[in-house]
Amino acid sequence: MADAASRLTSLAEELLGGPLPVRLRAWDGSEAGPVGGPVLIVRDRRALRRMIWKPGELGLARAWVAGELDVEGDLYALLDGLSGLLWERDEDTRGLLASARDPRLRAAAGALLKLSGPPLPPQPPAEEMRGRSGGRHTRRRDKQAISHHYDVGNDFYELVLGPSMVYSCAYWASDGPDATLEDAQRDKLDLIARKLNLKEGDRLLDVGCGWGSMALHAAREYGARVVGITLSREQAAYARKRIAEEGLTELIEIRVQDYRDVTDGPYDAISSIGMAEHVGAVRYREYADILYGLLKPGGRLLNHQISRRPEPDEKAYEIDPFIDAYVFPDGELAPMGRTLSTLEDAGFEVRDVEAIREHYALTLRRWVANLERQWDRAVRLTSPGRARIWRLYMAASAVSFERNRIGVNQFLAVKTPVSGKSGTALRPRVWNEKT
Q1: How far is C-alpha 405 from the chain's CA centre?
Q2: Rounded to 5°, angle at Cα 176 from 172 and 181
Q3: 29: left (phi over 0), alpha (psi -120 to 50) or beta
Q4: Which of 73, 200, 233, 265 could form an SS bridge with 294, CB 3.0 to 4.6 Å?
Q5: What CA–CA distance (Å, rounded) separates 328 from 319?
Q6: Which candidate, 419, 174, 133, places its Cα nearest to that of 298?
Q7: Distance from C-alpha of 133 to C-alpha of 138, rounded to nearest angstrom
Q8: Can you give the pLDDT at residue 151?
Q9: DSSP H helical segments within 99-232, as ranges?
């Protein structure tokens, strides 16, 4: 088939109403588009069939995971260009791409059919989440979602996250962006500990404790007594091993437990670091109520949470299909204002909100660099598809943080007693000044 790249480029530009910002190389070796930048490679015509059967992001994602789409050159530059073209277009263009009844889309589908070969839809890649049971954010389904994302091998996470084993936004405090990832993650954990005003003997509940890094820091550096909970058995086993190696088993307990089943309060402090995204809008008020009830009067909550921009019609919000199918099943983002209001509705006094959006872009770029540097080992530890999922999701997320499509915030909230004495310093940002 002659010059498939030119035909695909013309078709895409007709649909999108503008030139493609990237060069395209097709399976027949033909190329079209601007030179000197990243190249989007369509390795196999099956990629077109996926986009016909699942128009939009999910079809593209399946083709990427299957290795039918690839990138030559700067992945970030390609994603940045496509972000402006596809995800930040006006409502008319987004509506066109979403509407199977639109005559332009139907004509485009017909042209794609002629290029795509046999019409049968390819099977989704094995890494796609399937077989979910029960309603969204039930205990059983939450456990399935957590297992899908986290139980893919601790060795793989070590490769991506580095020695800190912290899977949330780092904090470049002292040395700026030139600091190592490990230093920035240590500074983030210490910032949280200081915001919580941890002291020796304090009881800390770490909800969604991951591989135990916050629990270890709080016990080792502050003498806190920590309970960490996770739904991932692989995370729990890894955290317990680390704790034993550091001789901190008397201070730290790691449980495989749902947050809804924690009943042994009161705690002096609670950390929720990258956990609320898994809770879901339907459960978030319940989550806030539970954490409020587990704190003693005057106790503090540090909620570290990714946010999204508000929608003109919040009822129209949909979970990102690629993230939902391949990365964080059932994960939901809320606007910052809704999170703050929910915490207040539960009874908390919100004392501080710190936006650290740019820090997450830096973090993600370091994780991508770790993955790319050890690509062959990552593939051996998981699968080619899984490694490709992580490279795309982390790089695309970095671009989203850089373009202010999503953000991340730390909320410091207090269960202020009736007396009104919150225990918070008159200068609330003193935790940024190490003494």
Answers
A1: 13
A2: 50
A3: left
A4: 265
A5: 10
A6: 419
A7: 9
A8: 76
A9: 103-116, 139-150, 154-161, 181-195, 213-222
